[in-house]
Design brief:
mainly beta; Porin; 2 domains; eight-stranded antiparallel beta barrel; rod-shaped
Length: 400
């Protein structure tokens, strides 16, 4: 009886206590996990296009005149190569195998304009050839630069479970291209070389329309002489011959500097094609402050120091174009590169949305100043303004 009475008393107490415990919000609830102090972030880090300038363009050196001297009939012949033609040793046509003529004259020539045929001081005719160059003005030219796509891997560490104050470190990469494709300002200069005409009447051949007598004859350049000199007297009478070597001036050297009036007869431009590829590795470190805005949203701000390793590669080629002659000179493809370590600082602000207790999505802006990257190559220079760069950041953070 005593045992049964005790069981009834225990059961009654349990029934009375059940409503009291049911009203407690922590009734049968597991303890809440403590907030994580560390957070790993990974995301895109897009840099707005910086200001890029190119310099050193517009200089194309005038080709040096060289006399290629033959030593035998199996070697290349004597030849002078000009921007508006050439003069080269010709052959006799009476022997087989052909031999080169060595009387100091030649008919193996090419020129592009009747303006190259001038009257000499003694009333005879001369044939004038030229070599040209261009000199730049030293100006800087603004390039077309694209934005720099990239990524950043970061780590945030809070000082307490309130997750307000902490520090952050980020390692990122960005790369972008910039180019300049246009004419640049430059001044044309040149040297003229005179060869005496010793036989015949050099002139650009003309083309006429046999079906229409009213159509005037038009020049059909270039004039190109024969490589073989005729031996028949009648053919030789009309065969154009000039001195193989150009006339020598008072200083004992061939050629004379062209005057401004002579240069004004030509319309010249220098076209530049510059391509610059940039790669940037950035390391930043500094304190951060996080502020919760409701249950899922938060706003963080940070500032600190940064180090950037900047590497640049330049491909450049330029062309000297003369309207009357076409493209007469090129620099050829030149490659130059340089790298530099830049130091600076940053400030940033980021908004985050908490997807769950561990994962968040963030987006924000970062302003960074790292000075200027200046590349001074053998011929060209590049200046990239990294003094005030803006980054757009998006990605995910994982707390642990």
């Amino acid at each position: 009886m005593r045992i049964a009475h005790s069981l009834w008393i225990s059961a009654g107490c349990s029934l009375l206590a059940a409503p009291i415990f049911a009203q407690d919000p922590n009734y049968f609830r597991l303890p809440r996990a403590e907030p994580s102090l560390g957070e790993l972030t990974i995301g895109s880090n897009y840099m707005l296009a910086p200001n890029v300038e190119f310099g050193g363009m517009g200089d194309l050196q005038e080709g040096a005149l060289t006399r290629l001297q033959e030593s035998s009939d199996t070697r290349p012949p004597v030849a002078y190569m000009y921007n508006d033609g050439y003069v080269q040793q010709d052959y006799t046509s009476s022997t087989t195998p052909r031999e080169r003529t060595r009387d100091g004259n030649t008919g193996n020539i090419r020129f592009y304009s009747d303006d190259q045929v001038v009257e000499g001081e003694d009333g005879s005719k001369d044939l004038v050839f030229h070599t040209f160059g261009a000199e730049g003005t030293g100006e800087q030219y603004e390039a077309d630069a694209s934005g720099a796509g990239g990524f950043e891997l970061g780590y945030n560490r809070f000082l307490s479970q309130k997750r307000r104050f902490g520090w952050e470190v980020g390692i990122g990469f960005n790369g972008f291209d910039s180019d300049y494709k246009d004419a640049v300002n430059s001044s044309l200069y040149g040297t003229k070389y005179v060869h005496d005409v010793v036989n015949g009447d050099p002139a650009i051949p003309t083309t006429d329309d046999d079906d229409d007598d009213s159509t005037p004859e038009v020049p059909d350049p270039p004039y190109t002489g024969d490589t073989s000199r005729p031996t028949d007297a009648d053919d030789l009478a009309d065969y154009v011959l000039i001195n193989l070597d150009p006339n020598v001036g008072g200083d004992g050297t061939p050629g004379s500097t062209m005057t401004a009036e002579e240069l004004s007869q030509y319309t010249a431009t220098v076209d530049s094609d510059m391509r610059f590829r940039s790669s940037m590795f950035t390391l930043r470190f500094g304190p951060t402050y996080n502020m919760e805005l409701g249950h899922r949203f938060s706003l963080s701000m940070g500032a600190g120091v940064s180090t950037m390793y900047y590497s640049g590669d330049l491909d450049a080629i330029e062309y000297l174009n003369i309207e009357e002659l076409g493209t007469i000179a090129t620099t050829g493809l030149r490659k130059e590169s340089d790298n530099e370590v830049l130091f600076g600082g940053y400030v940033q602000t980021t908004a985050a949305y908490q997807i769950n207790e561990r994962v968040n999505f963030y987006s924000g802006f970062q302003y960074q100043s790292s000075g200027n990257f200046e590349m001074q190559g053998e011929k060209y220079n590049v200046d990239v303004d990294m003094g005030s760069q803006m980054f757009v950041k998006t990605g995910f953070g994982v707390a642990f």
